[in-house]
Write a structure and sequence with these properties.
Blueprint: H1 4-14, H2 16-29, H3 39-60, E1 76-86, E2 89-98, H4 118-127, H5 132-143, H6 149-167, E3 174-189, E4 191-204, E5 208-216, H7 223-235, E6 240-246, H8 252-259, E7 264-267, H9 269-277, H10 285-296, H11 301-315, H12 320-333, H13 341-347, H14 354-365, H15 373-385, E8 396-397, H16 401-412, H17 414-417
Parallel strand pairs: 3-6, 6-7
Antiparallel strand pairs: 1-2, 3-4, 4-5, 5-8
Helix pairs in contact: 1-3, 2-3, 4-6, 4-15, 7-8, 9-12, 10-11, 13-16, 14-15
Amino acid sequence: MRTGAELAQAAVENNRGLAEELVERARRDGLQLVGENGLLAGLVKLVLEGALEAEMAEHLGYEKGEPAAAGPVNHRNGVGRKTVLSQVGPVTIDVPRDRAGTFEPQIVPKHARRVDGFSETIVSLYAKGLTTGEIQAHLAEVYDVDVSRDLVSRATSQVAQEMAAWRTRPLDRVYAVLLIDCIYIKIRDGAVANKPVYIAVGINLDGDRDVLGMWVGTGGEGAKQWMTWLTELRNRGVADVLIACCDGLKGLPDSVQQVWPQAEVQLCVVHLVRTSLRYAAKQHWAVIARDLREVYTAKTADEAEQRFTRFEDDWGERYPAVVDTWRRNWEHVIVFMRFPAPIRRVVYTTNMIESLNSRFRQATRRRGHFPDDDAALKVLYLVIRNPIKNRANVTGRTPAWKQAINSLAGYYGDRVTQN
């Protein structure tokens, strides 16, 4: 059986002459493009009715106008009229009926009041951060369609079900790299407050990057909360993580190693530099950042230690908090220095997530705040689900991965090669 799209295409081809006539008439009469009486609504009506007739012909086994086969067979029984919402506005169509009542159209299913694509338009606007009221106004202005808040809510509520399935989907057994970062979003919890949303991105052994999970925190997360979230990932199939790269979040490094005892935890160096600069006068930022770069680009841990000693001599007296920040985290700063350059490029920073965070902020900024945690997560999920074309995205294949995975196999042996 042909799909609805194939039937619609056939209807366009069969009615091309009528479509051209309709376009010419619209040009002559100065008709508007969208709205109930617009040109595009007429074309959509033409295509939908043609596709429905093609579906009915396939269902009955004979074309409209042809004699039905002899005997007690099913045949046409007039039409029923209904109005559906489309991406060009409301369209009134004639739906063919059969005497036996067994016809189940694909392109405009029974009881459907929206054509496929209209709900996607609503969801796309929601993903861009528009509120329900703004979506209503947009549809009224652009498509001349007056939709209810209930319809918008129903269209977006389907996303919640999809997101629930996404958040519980099975994951790969081994991830070469697990990156964890945080973004703050205004959410109402009694009062409106900035709440952290934690994002975990994994790079599997094929170099594929994917968002593995998202969780809304309270701002006071510790080891117990991290254990709950990381155990969730393990229960979904993640048996081993080679390297975890994170932002020094309280309790996270210890929790990672309890859930995956063999994992090595690397602090995001870029975030650590940013944290350090908070303790220094702005006039010294460029020099301090340059000197710290000399430390974390060292070829070996011993060389990094020597360079940091020089840094301490130069800046320790003026900015002891900067030195203390690095000393307290030194164990997790130099993890990536054990690895060859191909691995270092992948794990020394969580900046891979920055492009995603930028899109998160763009989608959430115009909303002001969200009524609850689920509403916020729903918008973030839509950002993940709908990658921007022609733009680097957090999901996809990691650049130069073949070189990195060969280095990982040489370093981790069976943990890589036997999976």
